[in-house]
Design a protein that fits this description.
The chain has one domain (about 1-60). The protein is built from one helix and four strands, in the order ββββα. The chain has one helix at about 45-60; strands at about 1-5, 20-25, 30-35, 40-45. The chain has a four-stranded antiparallel sheet. Strand 3 (about 30-35) and strand 4 (about 40-45) form a beta hairpin. It is extended.
């Protein structure tokens, strides 16, 4: 298993702000973040990809 911080690489800050953490465990990839309530929230990477692709498709259809 590998855990790695995902940071805002375009930030002008000396230490780039943490966006979330990625956890890779074999074929299982999860993004994990902590909310204001300090509770951990997780989402599967494949679910993120699906939703982003849907949004891109909707934007493409809207502009055609």
């Amino acid at each position: 298993m590998v855990e790695r911080a995902i940071r805002d690489l375009r930030s002008g800050k000396t230490i780039q702000p943490l966006f979330c953490k990625v956890i890779v465990n074999g074929d299982n990839v999860t993004l994990e973040s902590k909310g204001k309530d300090n509770k951990t929230h997780s989402i599967l990477w494949k679910d993120v990809i699906y939703q982003v692709e849907e949004a891109i498709r909707d934007e493409t259809q809207k502009n055609s």
